[in-house]
Amino acid sequence: MAAELHQRTLSELAAGLEAGDFSSVELTEALLARVADHDGELNAFITVTAEQALAAARAADEARAAGNAGVLGGLPLVHKDIFCTRDVLTTCGSRMLENFVSPYNATVVDRLAGAGAVILGKTNMDEFAMGSSNETSYYGPVRNPWHLEYSPGGSSGGSAAAVAARLAPAATGTDTGGSIRQPAALTGTVGLKPTYGRVSRYGMIAFASSLDQAGVITRSSADAALLLGVMAGFDERDSTSIDHPVPDYTAALSESLDGLRIGVVKQHFDDGLDAATGAAVREALAVLEANGAKLVDVDLPNIDLSVPTYYVVAPAECSSNLSRFDGVRFGHRADNPEDLFDLYCRSRGEGFGAEVKRRIMTGTYALSAGYYDAYYLKAQQVRHLIADDFKSAFEKVDLIAGPTSPTPAFRLGDKVDDPITMYLNDIYTVGANLAGLPGVSTPCGFVDGLPVGLHLVGPHWGEEVLIRCAHNYEQLTDWHRACPEDFS
Ligand code: GLN
Questions:
Q1: How confident is the model at residue 270 (pLDDT cuts 50, 70, 90)?
Q2: The ligand 1 atom nearest the CA atom of 430
Q3: Degrees (nearest 5) of the Cα angle 162, 457, 114?
Q4: N or C of the chain: less Cβ packing under 10 Å?
Q5: How many CA atoms lie within 13 A of 417 on its CB side?
């Protein structure tokens, strides 16, 4: 018997639609029914767009019947609620944007819809993408489908939980310091963060503009390749978008691991890494080596500085980006203000949650006249050193592999009152953002019943090498096919 529709990957669903085994309307109805049944437990969605989804599915079926199905014709997806969607609520996980309906679509949303994708809804996230556990969302925490008392990671936690629980075959996400890769690792899904500038940021609500990048969470690297091919490419509406040719990412899937030089960073296997997680990652490296890859030791001497550097740069940029949410230009407006000052203070005081306020305050401090040189400028200098370390490493290797996250998923509530411990979740992922490099996380085992991820980082524009390596690994193992028992 063929697998039930919700168990199939995006590529499998594309083949089924093409063969006429089922229609997009049938598929969309089946998934919407799953969302209705399961999202009460997970809280992965902020908005479900059932009506629009069914209309898009009907249109996709008609287009297919007329012989012009797009690449994603009739395939359901969900969007992180950071992407602006015309006529649909876009909250960014914040009370500040509780009732914001965007008048336009993000480029990512337009491109995916233009290829025929059907949008089931908008997913829950840490407020303004600041967090690693999805607990800073104004809409409440998302629960991990592998254990409902545990966090799915963040900030794209709703996207990751929806894909892991088979409520949607794929989701968009954003990654400023690890927000695609870390939740992918913690939920047993694949998370791809492209090179900075690869995918347009237009219409993606800004957190830290020099670090933010859009990507995907899927159940296989083949699916990530399919979506990236549609999302990637120059956009004149984003001044940081880079005009670089978009290859056929799917072609990379057929290449073997032969001769691939994989860098192993000694700093990635230090005391901060949970022993069982480290063992799963080492086992994954052994599988790659046994199948044609060559492991090479590499050194990233400044990588230990990446978390402190990130936590100066990201808050500095967010303090500037979030100044627009003042109750006048954008966002929640306080009732009955006494004067303009009171309007600003109370609107921002009421609209933002504690973590966002913490970041705005640290960022404003780091940028203030007396401290700019000591903090912001220094952080930018260290950022260069980190980028240079990667550059030297990529003279010796084709990609770098290691753990995605230092531990498997943790209990909701365990780290939320301790920002420093929470920030250390990003220790293996932020380096790629500081250097603008692409990264992918693919499932590589379980620790106490919770998934862990193998993290691969490539040189600029190296998405193909990452996809090639992750896809080969997925063919050699079955971790990415594991499904949480209560959601099979
Ligand atoms: N967890 C990191 C932070 O809180 C990264 C978030 C992200 O990538 N959006 O800033």
A1: confident
A2: 5
A3: 50
A4: N
A5: 2
Ligand 1 proximity of 187 Cβ (cutoff 6 Å): no
Q: How far apart are the first and last CA of the chain?
A: 15
The answer to whether the CB of 153 is under 6 A from ligand 1 is: no
In eight-state DSSP terms, residue 264 is: E
**Which strands make up the sheet holding 439-447, listed edge to edge?**
45-48, 118-123, 76-80, 171-175, 213-218, 190-193, 439-447, 450-457, 399-403, 261-265, 294-298
Domain positions in the chain: 2-258+439-487
Q: How many residues does the chain have?
A: 488
Q: What is the pLDDT averaged over residues 322-339?
A: 96
Q: Are 184 and 450 in contact (CB under 8 A)?
A: no
* 92-139 pLDDT per residue, tens: 999 999 999 999 999 999 999 999 999 999 999 999 999 999 999 999
CATH class of 2-258+439-487: alpha beta
368 is annotated as an active-site residue = no
Angle at the Cα of 451 (from 31 to 164), degrees rounded to 5? 10
Q: Is 396 a catalytic residue?
A: no
Q: Give the mean model confidence (pLDDT) for residues 442-456.
A: 98
DSSP letter (8 states) at residue 344: H
Q: Which of 11, 23, 24, 80 is catalytic?
A: 80
Checking if the pLDDT of 330 tops 60, the result is: yes
Q: Is 162 helix (H, G, I), strand (E, B) or coil?
A: helix
Residue 80 tokens, joined: 């992180």
Ligand 1 contact via 176 beta carbon (within 6 Å) = yes
- Using pLDDT thresholds of 50, 70 and 90, give the confidence band for residue 271: confident
Ligand 1 atom nearest to 131, measured from its CA: 4
Both tokens of 246, joined, read 């978009």
Distance (Å, rounded) from C-alpha 79 to C-alpha 125?
A: 11
Instruction: Assign 420 a pLDDT band (cuts: 50, 70, 90).
Output: confident
Q: Is the Cβ–Cβ distance between 170 and 10 less than 8 Å?
A: yes
Query: What does each C-alpha distance from 31 to 38, 78, 149, 461 come to in angstroms?
Result: 10, 11, 24, 34
- Report d(CA 155, CA 135) in Å as an integer: 9
pLDDT digits (tens, 9 = 90+) for 362-412: 999 999 999 999 999 999 999 999 999 999 999 999 999 999 999 999 999
**DSSP annotation string for 79-141:** EETTB--TTSB--TTSGGGTT-B-SS--HHHHHHHHTT-EEEEEE--SGGG--SSS-S-TT--
- Assess contact for 81 and 177: CB atoms under 8 A: no
Q: Is the pLDDT of residue 2 over 90?
A: no
| Dihedral pair phi/psi, residue 399, rounded to 5° | -160, 170
- The whole-number pLDDT of residue 421 equals 87
* Average pLDDT value for residue range 188-215: 98
How many whole angstroms separate alpha carbon 123 and alpha carbon 121? 7
441 flagged as catalytic: no
Main-chain dihedrals φ then ψ at residue 31, nearest 5 degrees:
-75, -40
Indicate the residue type of 229.
G
